[in-house]
Write the structure tokens for this entry.
Amino acid sequence: MVIDYLFKFEDGNELTFKLDTSIKRIPSDKEYPEWVQLGCHQCSNCPLKPEDSPLCPVAFELYELVDKNKDKLSYETARVEVKMEERSYFKDTDLQSGLFSLMGLLMANSECPHLKFLKPLQKFHLPFSSIEETLFRSSSAHLLKKYFDKKKDNSVVIDLNDLKESYRNLEIVNVSILERIRSISKGDANKNAIVALNIFAQMFSAEFDNDLEMIEDIFKND
């Protein structure tokens, strides 16, 4: 699936970013900056080793986008257009909100072991999604996977425990990525987008502890 993001700024400048989720992105032979190296602010829960993975998979996916926006401010306004194979979306918003949506997509595209659970959300990407929408999509995808797993192994328990743990790990990843970006970004657009992503992850963890009360009413009949 090919997804195009186009940012049109009020001063006439544009920023484009294309992602083909069917193609695994491989690092080139060029030298990447320190903040992309695995050992720079490496996550405390990272299972990878520098000799096997010299670059942080998440930082590698974000590198080009972060570099293009390292001097930009979060409150800059833009029309953000997202073109996908089945439909297109657009929104007049601030830069950090557009980056928030695109960064979430890129992180799901990474080879980070802790972010594999986000792959289904990437395939059915919903730009500019709200907390409620993302919580619904994430929990639904997780439970559907459990259903298929149980068809193969009847001992599988269909619950949210694994998803809770996945979001706890995601919070650690977000904090590490934020520290990496802080070391090179003069503007705050990149940083605030990651902060927003982490607020989502923290709220999801709280919702799982509260048995998804935020979306429970959807299934209640009048």
In short: Strands lie at 2-9, 14-20, 77-83, 88-94. The CA atoms of residues 93 and 210 lie 31 Å apart. The radius of gyration is 18 Å.
